[in-house]
Amino acid sequence: MTAIATRRRRALAGERGGVGGRGGLGGQAVRLSPPWSRSRVELTAAAVVFAVIAVWAIWRTQIWDVAAIFGEGRQAMADFLFGTALRDGALPPRFGDVGQLLDKVVETFFIAVAGTFIAAVLSLPLAFLAARSTTPNRVVWMVAQGIIAFARTVPDVIFAFVFVRVYRIGPLPGMLAIGLHAIGMVGKLMADAVEQADPGPRQAVAAQGGSWLQQLSTGVLPQVVPSFLATVLFRLDINFRSSTVLGLVERAAWASCSCSTPATCAGTWPWGWWRPRW
Phi, psi at residue 136, to the nearest 5°? Predict the structure, then answer.
């Protein structure tokens, strides 16, 4: 037992070629950190640039104003939660008509589901056209990429304003706005999944004389279905939140109109030229 303990102490001290003491293998120092390759230098530079931008953003927005956060902000939050002498607070919550509340919750969920379905149906062909490995030519690839980028760039609230102008306030503008905006995310992730698919099955179908559609349906689509379903379900979660935000925007529009019916609100629409057709 004494000999075993002695060997362990010598191993820890580095006297038999271990790391530490005179250290290293055969008395040579062992490099524990990875070498500075090009990728590591790029990642380090990107991290430094991000840190600088974050510090500048914090300084620009002045979010370190402790007095505003814990002074005026604390009192304002207390007034919002518990109320003041002039108005009630948010606690305890008052739901009013529970039946109407549940009906609106179900309607919000259906808007999210319908919008996600629209995005899934339109994103699937766009993904194959926007992937370099499956697009027919470069012009089609640029058009498909442009559509996906446009849908991802324009916020869903802007789409909602457009469809409210065309139709009216209700579930339809929200469903179309959510669906078109979600194409930007679902189409982009699907196109990336198609590009990363194994080309072997598609080449085998092409070698047997299969058409372009047959190559996609039998050689590529089975590989990307799991990724497609995961992306759609994740987008459904986001769309449920987006449909709630669009509902708040709708209620804010009604509140700013200060009208009881759509007919009386048509002449006092808060955005002036942006008047809906009731």
Answer: -65, -45
